[in-house]
Amino acid sequence: MKIEMKHGAGGEAMESLIKEGILKNLSIAETEVSLDALDDASVINGTVFSTDSYTVKPIFFPGGDIGKLAVSGTINDVSALGAKPIALSAGMIVEEGLDMDDFERIVKSMGEISRKAGVPIITGDTKVVEKGSAERIFINTSGIGIRHPLLDENIRKAEKSRKLGSRWLLDSNLADGDIIISSGHIGDHGIAILSSREGYGFESKLESDVQPLNGMLERALEVGGIVAVKDPTRGGLSNALNEWREKSGIGIFIDEEKLPIREEVNSACELLGIDPLDLGNEGKYIIAAVPEMAEEVLGALRSTKEGRYAEIIGRATKEFEYVVMETSVGGRRIVEPPIGDPVPRIC
Fold first, then answer.
1. How far is 197 from 58, CA to CA, in rounded Å?
2. Which residues contact 291 (CB under 8 A, 6 or more apart)?
3. Among candidates 79, 54, 47, 55, which has minimal Cα distance to 141?
């Protein structure tokens, strides 16, 4: 077997590569949240740590660029566990011949977003490779964070309803009755990337949702009652919900009518034969909260610019073993995890 594009695109193919090609060949350290938990970050000695590499094509797209994407994505991964991101590293592999103006534009974007989020880039590395060895520029960012000062009180409020299995906001924390919230419209990033590539036969003014979400999540933690947070990037909402289902051992029920999807996204997906639930997002969270606090969490999200279109989309339930969606025509269907993201090279 040879590695294919689908192995890096989220979904079942990537999960298989990670479990069979990577994890089984590594020594898994005994940490508070370990590598094999496959959450958005790990925790060692009280420090939250995450890393990601960005290969988006094209490197400039409606609403952002590879630099903004790299900084935002890593901040969001660290924040998702209930951490306060405090610093980033940035490693860049640049192809010989990249225009200096483009390079400076990307680095400037990284600086602007890190300052906006309050998470400085404190170390890094730059390599240049021969022309044809890479595709203009690849970026790796790593992030570290500390336990958020609001997390313990958030968990205390959640545990008025039930006991949590972890002191962090993990994929395995869901239980029967938990309410699931999307922080905003899904599919924007995937369609924005497609609209900027040639040969897809449609035009769209839609912009990527790429943005750091640490400030928005902090506002929600002030309310409390949150049990899990995840950013539905590669593989989209369908993959993220199925990860929750598998790790928590609980079914999930969502309502298609409640899903915040822009008309431009629906139209493009119909044209291309793509399920919007499978499209990657780079500026959205799905958040699970205990039912007693869900409406307050929703209100907190909507009070922020990043979460103003937040919606309750479903719940965790023992009624099903799978992720099940009530369709807009009144039927039900199982939402399967995708084999891979239908839009390659989105991040």
1. 7
2. 161, 177, 178, 179, 315
3. 54
Question: Could you tell me if 137 and 66 are in contact, meaning their C-beta atoms sit under 8 angstroms apart?
Answer: yes
Query: Residue 12: which residues within 8 A CB-CB, separation 6 or more?
Result: 337, 338, 339, 340
pLDDT in tens, 46-87: 999 999 999 999 999 999 999 999 999 999 999 999 999 999
Query: Among candidates 292, 306, 177, 185, which has minimal Cα distance to 236?
Result: 185
Is residue 339 one of the residues assigned to a domain?
no
- 109 pLDDT band (50/70/90 cuts)? very high
User: Could you tell me the CATH number of the domain that includes residue 308?
Assistant: 3.90.650.10
Indicate the Cα dihedral angle 251, 255, 258, 263, nearest 10°.
110
| Nearest alpha-carbon partner for 220 in 207, 209, 229, 231 | 229
Residue 10 predicted with pLDDT over 70:
no
Domain ranges, residue 247: 5-334
Query: Where do the H-state alpha helices sit in 224-286?
Result: 236-248, 263-272
Whether the Cβ atoms of residue 130 and residue 96 lie closer than 8 Å to each other: yes
Does a structural domain hold residue 344? Answer: no
Name residue 139's beta-bridge partners: 54, 92
Domain count, the chain: 1
Nearest partner of 11 among 277, 210, 192, judged by Cα:
277
Global model pTM greater than 0.85: yes
Cβ partners under 8 Å of residue 117, min gap 6: 71, 72, 75, 85, 212, 214, 215
The predicted-structure confidence for 234-265, as pLDDT tens digits, reads as follows: 899 999 999 999 999 999 999 999 999 999 99
- Assigned domain for 76 exists: yes
Mean pLDDT of all residues in 160-172: 96
176 lies in a domain? yes
Q: What phi and psi, each to the nearest 5 degrees, are found at residue 226?
A: -80, 135
